TrEMBL record:
InterPro entries the record matches: AAA+_ATPase, AAA_lid_NorR, CheY-like_superfamily, Homeodomain-like_sf, HTH_Fis, P-loop_NTPase, Sig_transdc_resp-reg_receiver, Sigma_54_int
Signal peptide: none
Residue list for modification 4-aspartylphosphate: 52
UniProt KW ATP-binding keyword: yes
Entries under Pfam families matching the protein: AAA_lid_14, HTH_8, Response_reg, Sigma54_activat
Segments traversing the membrane: none
Recorded superkingdom: Bacteria
Species in which this protein is naturally found: Seleniivibrio woodruffii
GO terms of biological process kind: phosphorelay signal transduction system; regulation of DNA-templated transcription
A molecular function GO annotation: sequence-specific DNA binding
Domain named Response regulatory: residues: 3-117
Keywords (A to Z) from UniProt: ATP-binding, DNA-binding, Nucleotide-binding, Phosphoprotein, Transcription, Transcription regulation
Protein name: Fis family sigma54 specific transcriptional regulator
Length: 452
């Protein structure tokens, strides 16, 4: 089933288009503002995006440019008013598939979409589906120019040539979903859907129905048959986010589905076979979950084929300033402001702060600063107080750790001097130090002091 995103601020048109396209057999997602649309585009992949030109937040041209940056194969159709033909022409020059004027004729829009999906787009998709083609830094929304980012792109390029399961490890906010998107878009499966599910966000009792679908009458409220997400991912990619949170009972069923490439809908007895590439991600330590009896070891070995651990932002600090400047430009453009300069003190803060929320935290920080900053330069005083306080606590902790280390080194040196002075006669050394012999023994053990 082809996926379509509608970005339209007028409620009646948005709902009308949604119902019309769903009746035509499409899987439809909607956004009310340009900002919502941008957020969805950065997280999900669509075959077609239909966007109004004039929107709150980003306009149609900005949305088109973003789509072409992260998903060149996606069809973009721009909705324009009669007086905006020049804008429509500009959109076509920038890569839009077509435009449609208001008042909008739904049948004409469906004809455009069908024309794109029937084959006109195939040549355009070659830029995306050239499996293994080496991307440049910044593609697919992955920002940075460090060696770590280069290794991520190398992994994406190699993984795209394979159909093996992928396991992406990384803290929250490190870009695991972006990597999954990139692998799909560079693979031979990019003409089909990438379907996503977050194992932590769906209650256990609903997860199987969400994955496998159900037949009419399978349970109270099942008034019609519904295909599951696995079925929608046929010939495409299925992305399991936060697989470490999957309930243990469901892990057994997932293992069987992966091994057999088939499943049954709830309430059904027909085996449904799928040709799907699986990508998994987690913020957790799966080995610890296995030891705790919370994750099946056989499932882990089944899915842990091609693996990558995404580094936290604190481990690639050379990318922080580049990413901050990127988001400063993006949010300034959105708010109609000039892009501010960064003061030296602000740059020092960026390079010294650990960003426990990783890239997501940095993005939100820049959005906050650009929203409230009135001047042409960003200073440390523009940083929200909660982040400054967190940074101060981190610095204090590091300082205390260094102090503890120094004290222990002094203590060790003092004890060694006393032991050597009295030829390692511990009773005399303890008396000299003013401590009991038992205390001396304990200190020697703690500090790793042994006679050579």
């Amino acid at each position: 089933m082809n996926r379509i995103l509608i970005i339209e601020d007028e409620l009646s048109m948005r709902l009308g288009l949604r119902f019309t396209l769903e009746d035509a057999g499409y899987d439809v997602c909607v956004a009310e503002t340009g900002e919502q649309g941008m957020d969805i585009i950065s997280r999900e992949v669509f075959d077609v995006i239909v966007t109004d030109f004039r929107l709150p937040g980003y306009n149609g041209i900005e949305i088109l440019e973003k789509v072409k940056e992260i998903s060149p194969s996606t069809c973009v159709i721009v909705i324009t008013a009669f007086a905006e033909i020049e804008n429509a022409v500009k959109a076509i020059k920038l890569g839009a598939f077509d435009y449609i004027q208001k008042p909008l004729d739904p049948s004409k829009l469906i004809e455009m979409i069908d024309r794109f999906l029937s084959g006109t787009h195939k040549s355009n998709k070659s830029t995306c589906c050239d499996a293994g083609k080496q991307p440049s830094s910044g593609n697919f929304g992955i920002l940075g120019q460090s060696r770590a980012v280069g290794r991520i792109f190398d992994f994406i390029s190699a993984s795209a040539k394979s159909d093996s399961s992928v396991m992406i490890f990384g803290e929250s906010g490190t870009g695991k979903e972006l990597v999954a998107n990139a692998i799909h878009l560079m693979s031979k499966r990019c003409d089909s859907n990438i379907i996503k599910i977050n194992s932590a966000s769906i209650p256990e009792e609903l997860l199987e129905a969400e994955l496998c679908g159900y037949e009419k009458g399978a349970f109270t409220g099942a008034f019609q048959q519904k295909k599951g997400k696995l079925e929608l991912a046929h010939e495409g990619t299925f992305f399991f986010d936060e697989i470490g949170d999957m309930p243990f009972n469901m892990q057994t069923k997932l293992l069987r589905i992966i091994e057999n490439k088939s499943f049954e809908r709830l309430g059904g007895n027909k085996e449904i076979y799928i040709d799907t590439r699986f990508v998994f991600a987690t913020r957790m330590n799966i080995s610890e979950l296995i030891s705790a009896g919370r994750f099946r070891e056989d499932l882990f070995y089944r899915i842990n084929v091609l693996t990558i651990s995404l580094p936290p932002l604190r481990d690639r600090r050379e990318d922080i300033l580049t990413i901050a400047e990127h988001y400063a430009t993006e949010f300034s453009k959105k708010l109609g402001k000039s892009v501010p300069d960064f003061s030296e003190e602000f740059k020092e803060f960026l390079s010294g702060y650990d960003f426990p929320g990783n890239i997501r935290e940095l993005k939100h920080l820049m959005e906050n600063i650009i929203t409230f900053c009135d001047g042409g330069t960003v200073f440390v005083r523009n940083i929200p107080s909660d982040i400054l306080n967190r940074h101060d606590r981190t610095v204090d902790t590091v300082g205390n750790s260094q102090l503890d280390y120094n004290i222990k080194e002094i203590e060790k040196s003092t004890i060694l001097d006393a032991l050597n002075r009295f030829l390692w006669r511990k009773s005399e050394a303890a008396k000299y130090l003013g401590i009991s012999r038992a205390t001396l023994w304990r200190k020697m053990k703690e500090l790793g002091i042994e006679r050579a």
